[in-house]
Design brief:
The complex is a heterodimer of chains A (194) and B (673).
Chain A: E1 16-21, H1 22-34, E2 43-48, H2 56-64, E3 69-74, H3 85-102, E4 110-114, H4 120-137, H5 155-160, H6 179-182
Chain B: E1 4-9, H1 21-29, E2 34-40, H2 46-59, E3 63-68, H3 71-84, E4 92-96, H4 98-102, H5 108-126, E5 135-138, E6 142-146, H6 150-161, E7 165-169, E8 184-185, E9 190-191, H7 192-205, E10 209-212, E11 215-223, E12 226-233, H8 248-252, E13 258-259, E14 268-269, E15 272-273, E16 285-286, H9 292-298, H10 307-311, E17 324-330, E18 332-335, E19 339-341, E20 367-369, H11 370-377, E21 398-405, H12 421-435, E22 440-445, H13 455-464, E23 469-472, E24 475-481, E25 484-491, E26 496-502, E27 504-509, E28 511-513, H14 517-524, E29 551-553, H15 563-580, E30 585-588, E31 593-595, H16 605-609, E32 615-621, E33 627-634, H17 644-648, E34 654-656, H18 661-670
Parallel strand pairs in B: 1-2, 1-3, 3-4, 6-7, 6-18, 7-10, 18-29, 20-27, 21-22, 21-27, 22-23
Antiparallel strand pairs in B: 5-30, 8-9, 11-12, 12-17, 13-14, 15-16, 19-28, 24-25, 25-26, 31-34, 32-33
Helix pairs in contact in B: 1-5, 2-3, 5-18, 6-7, 6-15, 11-12, 12-13
Classes of the chains: A alpha/beta (194), B alpha/beta (673).
């Protein structure tokens, strides 16, 4: 699939966050790079030791922070570097996907795949397919108009605070911002306008 | 307050061609917490590393991000550099802007934007990195070698000669592997068994090698330095401590017509058998599937034939012997399980393998494969070294050899080249010529791959001195008419079809890993490719290691290769193992999990999901010594750092150093709009 095909809605390019395991998919993506396999540039990889490390809250947080699509990718069943982490990921994901569907998140936004360290071409295909699919679904705006907490201090000092994040929303560690208030664009490191 | 240094590498043109590295460095300057942001041509070079060290010292950096190649490439390099300047190694991370960016996108603008994103993400992560120190664990300085072919034998001898104990496990009744089946080896035409059997005996007699033949690896637990392996010692039905190898049992066994595996079906063996005369250990084995006594027992009938037990003067036959499970502690494992040959029949283990109908699906008599030809040529083989047709025992006057059967064939077989066939076919033509002076050898080839030392000269000799006829082209069809095999092929250099008759056809079939390699690999948690070949850690620079720490690979189970390469690889694994065993304590990465004892509720969900049993129960006591709570504790020597516990913990009380929730959330945050 060609990632340079003009999008339906006037040039919309989806932002996709990928949570991948270090041993299989990250290495497979490295192989894709070494093999110079060209692919869509919409995906940003977050490296984890194992897909078993993936907390479903990572996915909700990524959506909340503006991702239009998510990729979760790890070792093939029976091949997990840590024996069983990918099985835990798969089980968590099976339930989580039901929840996302129930919440109204289009299933096509989330891709779950097995890409081994020797499957550079498969990674390229996973990336291109996900980008094409999410582009067709359009931007994910469900959370973006929520106005929740306004930051009282610049993000950087808050980020340097080492207190453990509270689970379940609210608290020091989380900064949800309203796009309407802060204006669009750029990374979390820009100061939030109070 | 964070003081992060960002170093963006051009990597020559590798990154610089598609990513504007200077712009990336500039783009990170305004990130809160970044106090130093530069770009440079080659960060991993000495001057590049000096730049990092200088910046750490002069600017008091609390964290370093190197935006360059994959961390798999140079994370260690930069961590060492940082440590050299006094910054804890784990406060240094890499942002992958090469493999994951510059190399896969041609659009400079998009690639640069992405590179900035990737770098800023890692900057945010590093703000949450904490200093970590290396963990030291004891290491069991014994090795396990799986597979008793030439590679396994060499690895075992080298490790044992290096002063460490080795356990060698071989699934067949004897060690020696396929090399013991060969007649002569290229390019020297050395008698294969003559050079192999002294090594086999050396293994058997070596004080530091424990040989478990007719055994298989049942299960493997643990991790580098601390593996616990269970070996199934299969029941030969012979008591090793009593048998003296006299062979009387094999003489009297009434079931003499079993196709011999060692002779590739061309010879026969008895139900109680020694695979070949030079077998090590020299112990007979009862094939319980073919022995009359055991076949009767399976049907609930009484024991009738006990001829072998009656003939045995030592009373060594034990029909009630059971498999034994033995557990061994080892610190390193070498996988050297070797190969099998592709068969052209219809019955294939995978759907994408199709067999070769044009060559008769293996049903045409006198069409044999390379190993079968070796058995015919071998002096101790079923024909005592005479080349004879299996169908009628006559001497073939015309033999046609077909190369690339199953190899280089993505449609019906394997896409790869099996490396050894060009050489052994040349060898076969020579052996045939030496034994049948008026015999005519014809070879159908696609290319001649003779890359090793003396290999090209050897190949030329087959053609120029020994009279083999080489035809460039493939055979499209073979069938039998009367006594003769009819062959239809194409001669591409003449540009014409060619038809000929042959008395025997030898197929150079593809080399594949042993059956069941996937099951073994899963037991070891090593990765393998779609053919079953074990994956090396890096194809160029780490060819004998796997990605599973402590497990090494040697020989044809990793890729098709010949004997000298298998031996070299085996010696290389031995040097890795001896290096691992050089110190009493093994240093471990400190990226392990830790439980926050204040918030842990003691539900032990973490214990249930931990694949390594790293979670222990810890008593929390009051001042009087009463246990008030039992909480989880992660043993830092056992934890492998997968983080499944952290994702599972309902109260988020366990944290994986290096990949904490804070670090991951800050990365997600950084990618946000």
């Amino acid at each position: 699939m060609d990632s340079t095909t003009p999008a339906a809605a006037g040039g919309f390019e989806p932002r996709i966050t990928a949570f991948v395991c270090n041993w299989c998919t990250y290495t497979g993506a490295d192989l894709a790079g070494t093999s110079r396999l060209q692919m869509a540039s919409n995906v940003r990889i977050i490296r984890l030791p194992c897909t078993g490390r993936i907390d479903p809250m990572f996915i909700t947080k990524a959506f909340e922070r503006g991702a239009d699509g998510i990729i979760v990718s790890g070792c093939h069943p029976a091949d997990c570097h840590y024996n069983a982490g990918n099985y835990h990921a798969r089980r968590r994901f099976a339930i989580f996907r039901e929840l996302m569907d129930f919440l109204g998140v289009a299933p096509g936004r989330i891709t779950f795949s097995w890409v081994s360290a020797s499957e550079g071409a498969k990674w390229r295909d996973v990336v291109n397919d996900a980008v094409t699919r999410v582009r067709a679904l359009g931007p994910f705006t469900a959370y973006r108009n929520m106005v929740v907490v306004q930051a009282t201090a610049p993000l950087s000092t808050a980020a340097a605070d080492h207190s453990p994040p509270e689970h379940g929303g609210g608290g020091e560690g989380l900064r949800m911002q309203s796009l309407a208030a802060a204006g669009v664009d750029s990374g979390a490191t820009k100061e939030v306008q109070a | 307050m964070a003081r992060i240094g960002v170093f963006v590498c051009h990597c020559g043109e590798n990154i610089g061609r598609t990513v504007d590295c200077h712009a990336v460095a500039e783009g990170c300057k305004d990130v809160p917490g970044v106090v130093h942001s530069v770009d440079y041509k080659y960060m991993c070079s000495d001057p590049g590393q000096q730049m990092v060290k200088k910046a750490i010292e002069e600017k008091g950096l609390t964290g370093v991000v190197v935006a360059a190649c994959s961390p798999h490439m140079h994370e260690k390099t930069f961590r060492r550099a940082a440590a050299g300047a006094g910054l804890n190694a784990f406060l240094c991370e890499m942002a992958n802007v090469r493999e994951h960016c510059s190399w896969i996108h041609e659009d400079r603008e998009k690639a640069t934007v992405k590179a900035v994103d990737i770098t800023r993400t890692i900057v945010e992560k590093v703000k949450h990195n904490v200093p970590l120190s290396t963990i030291r664990i004891p290491v069991t300085r014994r090795a396990l070698v799986i597979g008793g072919g030439i590679a396994g034998i060499q690895a075992a001898l080298d490790i044992a000669d290096g002063g460490r104990e080795v356990i060698l496990v071989e699934k067949g009744p004897s060690i020696g592997g396929h090399m013991s089946q060969l007649s002569e080896t290229f390019p020297t035409l050395d008698c294969s068994q003559c050079i192999l059997t002294p090594r086999m005996v050396e293994v058997y007699q070596h004080p530091r090698i424990k040989l478990y033949a007719y055994s298989e690896v049942e299960s493997v637990e643990g991790y580098i330095g601390n593996f616990k392996v269970t070996v199934r010692r299969k029941a030969r039905s012979v008591d090793e401590s009593k048998c003296n190898g006299c062979g009387a049992c094999t003489q009297v066994c009434p079931n003499k017509k079993i196709p011999s595996e060692f002779d590739c079906g061309l010879g026969k063996r008895t139900a109680i058998y020694v695979p070949f005369p030079q077998a090590v250990p020299n112990l007979p084995t009862v094939d319980r599937n073919k022995c009359l006594l055991f076949m009767n027992r399976a049907k609930g009938r009484p024991d009738t034939c006990k001829k072998c037990a009656e003939a045995c003067e030592k009373g060594a036959i034990d029909f009630d012997q059971q498999d034994r499970l033995i557990t061994e502690d080892v610190g390193a494992i070498v996988v050297a399980t070797g190969y099998q040959l592709y068969t052209i029949g219809k019955d294939q283990p995978k759907d994408n393998l199709k067999g070769y109908g044009e060559y008769g699906y293996g049903t045409i008599p006198d069409v044999i494969d390379g190993l079968q030809f070796e058995r015919l040529a071998s002096a101790s083989g079923p024909t005592s070294g005479k080349i004879l047709r299996p169908s009628d025992g006559k001497v073939p006057k015309r033999i046609v050899f077909l190369q690339c059967i199953g190899s280089r064939d993505p449609q019906k077989g394997m896409e790869y080249c099996s490396k050894i066939c060009c050489m052994y076919v040349a060898k076969h033509t020579m052996l045939y010529h030496h034994k049948v002076h008026d015999g005519k050898a014809t070879v159908f080839y696609m290319d001649i791959r003779a890359a090793g030392k003396g290999y090209e000269e050897f190949s030329r000799r087959a053609i120029e001195e020994e009279g083999a006829q080489y035809i460039r082209g493939r055979v499209s069809r073979m069938w039998r008419e009367g006594d003769v095999i009819k062959i239809l092929g194409f001669d591409t250099l003449e540009g014409e079809p060619i038809a000929m008759d042959a008395d025997m056809v030898v197929l150079a079939t593809a080399m594949r890993p042993q059956p069941g390699i996937d099951v073994l690999a899963q037991k070891l948690s090593v990765s393998y490719d779609q053919h079953g070949f074990i994956n090396e850690a890096h194809p160029k620079l780490r060819p004998v290691e796997t990605n599973t720490a402590g497990i090494y690979v040697a020989g044809a189970c990793q890729a098709p290769r010949d004997i000298p390469d298998a031996v070299a690889m085996a010696s290389a694994t031995a040097s890795k193992v001896l290096g691992l065993f050089a110190n009493e304590m093994l240093e471990r990465e400190p990226t392990v999990a830790r439980v926050d004892e204040a918030t842990c509720a003691g539900c032990f969900h973490c214990e249930r999901v931990c694949a390594y049993g790293a979670v222990e129960h810890k008593d929390i006591k009051d001042r009087a010594g009463n246990v008030v709570r039992v909480i989880a504790y992660v043993n830092p020597g056992v934890c492998q750092g997968c983080g499944t516990c952290e994702a599972t913990c309902p109260s988020k009380s366990v944290e994986l150093a290096g990949f904490t929730d804070e670090q991951i959330w800050s990365e997600i945050q950084a990618l946000g709009v």
